[in-house]
């Protein structure tokens, strides 16, 4: 259920190259689903004018602490990275439709490209507790500096790391690692993914060829997060558009017209 929450910053620490982990404390009891997101106001006032959409990262209900992992990519996130502990922050959410997790079992691939891991972390924690699932995390980045919190990843997962420059793990793209895993161990029962559009498009091709069901977090720039601005449209299979903030951001592979991405 969407709420406007005035939370207090309890941490805002650097965890990687221009990557930060923001923690906010709220008295609201939140019901969250992996894949949902919040709109974050970087600071009070109208500068910057637009809020920033961030997937929730971790939630500690007993402490009332909600975390977001984000990368500084522009003025809004630069301002957010400078916010101090004890300052107040306005967040709106949870928003969107999260991942479909009913009756999951078998081999599950989580495929993250770069900061896409921020959108999959909560899902990784949830699935690692599911005894019916064998979870493989495939995480690819440009270089080793793109990884964060590796030591805090859930233990009950098989982790496959890759970098484009070969500085850590296998050299290559995340999709190349996925193809290797499929060749070595067979197709998974489901794929969940978050990352650059090019990666998601290639994963959709792999999924179609192997008849593998799955979902992607289709991230777009958003102005409102509630369907009013139509700025986060995703091309729909069969024509027309879907709104990432309302119809997603978690979409099944077959919902997206990847030829128009």
Give keywords.
globular, 17% helix, 261 residues, seven-stranded antiparallel beta sheet, seven-stranded mixed beta sheet, 4 helices, Elongation Factor Tu (Ef-tu), domain 3, Rossmann fold, 2 domains, alpha/beta
Number of strands: 16
Strand content: 25-35%
Number of helices: 4
Order of strands across the biggest sheet? Answer: 4-3-7-1-2-6-5
Major sheet details: 7 strands, antiparallel
Q: In the CATH hierarchy, what is the architecture of the largest domain at level 2?
A: 3-Layer(aba) Sandwich
Structural overview:
With 261 residues, this protein is an alpha/beta fold. The chain folds into 2 domains: 3-95, Translation factors (Elongation Factor Tu (Ef-tu), domain 3, Beta Barrel); 106-260, Rossmann fold, CATH 3.40.50. Helices cover 17% and strands 34% of the residues. The chain has helices at 75-81, 117-127, 174-185, 197-210, and strands spanning 3-16, 19-25, 37-40, 52-55, 58-60, 65-71, 88-95, 106-113, 133-141, 158-163, 170-171, 190-194, 214-217, 233-235, 241-243, 250-252. A 7-stranded antiparallel β-sheet has the order 4-3-7-1-2-6-5. A hairpin with a 2-residue loop joins strand 1 and strand 2. Helix 3 (174-185) packs parallel to helix 4. The longest helix is centred in the C-terminal third of the chain and has 14 residues, at 197-210. It is globular, with a radius of gyration of 18 Å. The model has no long low-confidence stretch (mean pLDDT 94).
